[in-house]
Amino acid sequence: MSAREFRQVDVFTDQPYLGNPVAVVLDGTGLDDDTMLMVAQWTNLSETTFVLPPTDPAADYRVRIFTPSRELPFAGHPTLGTCHAWLQSGGEPRGEGEIVQECLAGLVRIRRNDGPLAFAAPPLIRSGPVDEQLVERIAGMIGLAREEIVDSQWVDNGPGWVAVLVRDAQTALAIQPNVTDLELGVVGPHDGESDADFEVRAFFRVPGGTAEDPVTGSLNASVAQWLLASGRATAPYVASQGTALGRRGRVHISADGDGTVWVGGGTVTCVTGVIELS
C-alpha cells in the first residue's frame, strides 16, 4: 500500500459544504481502471478524479474522471476542483494565467485571473431543436404542462444533456421530477430581486429512479452556449443551482470577443489528507 495525497474540494461556492464536492487523488500513477472505479465507488461522490502526468506536451497535467459506475470524458465541477487541488499541492502551470488540463475529451483551458477559476466551455457534440414528441415526454417527466416549457434544445457536450427553458425560476424550483431516462437540464430566469439571473436544475437517471446534481459545470457550459447564441441571455451572467437541495451554487458565465464561453465558480478545500492505495 502507498499513501497518495488526497483532497475533497467543494466547487461553485465560496462557502464550504454548499457547492458540489469532488474527490481528487493527486497521484494516480500506476492505478488501473478497476482501482480507480473502486475508489470512486468508495467516495460515493458524483465524481472522483485522478491526476496523472500529461501525454500531450501542451498540457500541464492529465486527469481521469470517474463516477461510481463509469469513466467520463469531461465534467465541469471536477475540472475546476482538480485544478484547485493541483495548484494547492504545488502544481506550476507552463503558461501565465492559464492552466491546460488533458482529459479524454481533449485539452481544456482553465483561467486563474483575479476571480474564481473558470474553464473554457467545450464544443457541443449535439445541438439543435428537440423533437416535439420528446418535449411532451419531458414535460411529463418533470410534471409540467407542455405549454409551461418555453423552449428546448439539445445541449450535449459529452454527458448527453437535453435542456428545457421554463417561464421563471419559481417554476423550475417547484419541479418534483418523475422517473427520467434522460440527462435533463431545466432553466428558469430569475426576476431582478435575485443575485442570480437563472436557476438551473440537473436531473439524471439512476437505477429505478431520478437523481439531482447539486451544481453542474458541464450543463451550465452547454446551456450558456445555447442561451447566449439564441439571445436569451447576455454575458456576463450568474446561474444559481442546488437551491432545491439546500445548496448555494453560483456559476459565473462570461464570454470573450471570439465567442469562447467561460464557466467559473468558487473552489474550497474541505478535506485534506492521504488515501492508501496499492
Task: Please describe what this structure looks like.
It is a single chain. This protein is of the alpha+beta class and 278 residues long. It is built from 5 helices and 18 strands. It has an 18-stranded mixed sheet that branches. Strand 1 and strand 2 form a beta hairpin.
What are the defining features of this structure?
18 strands, about 280 residues, globular, about 40% strand, 5 helices, 18-stranded mixed sheet, single chain, alpha+beta
Task: Produce the secondary structure layout.
Blueprint: E1 2-11, E2 20-25, H1 33-43, E3 48-52, E4 61-66, E5 71-72, H2 76-88, E6 98-103, E7 106-111, E8 118-120, E9 126-128, H3 132-141, E10 149-156, E11 161-166, H4 169-174, E12 183-189, E13 198-206, E14 209-213, H5 217-229, E15 237-241, E16 249-255, E17 261-264, E18 267-277
Parallel strand pairs: 2-3, 4-6, 11-12, 13-15
Antiparallel strand pairs: 1-2, 1-18, 3-4, 4-5, 6-7, 7-8, 8-17, 9-10, 10-11, 12-13, 13-14, 15-16, 16-17
Strand % is 35-45%
| Uncertain spans | none
**Helical content, roughly?**
10-25%
- Tell me, rounded to a whole number, the average pLDDT: 96
Number of H- or I-type helical stretches: 5
The Rg value, from CA coordinates, equals 18 Å
Largest sheet: 18 strands, mixed
Task: Provide a quick synopsis of the model.
This protein has 278 residues and is of the alpha+beta class. The protein has helices spanning 33-43, 76-88, 132-141, 169-174, 217-229; strands spanning 2-11, 20-25, 48-52, 61-66, 71-72, 98-103, 106-111, 118-120, 126-128, 149-156, 161-166, 183-189, 198-206, 209-213, 237-241, 249-255, 261-264, 267-277.
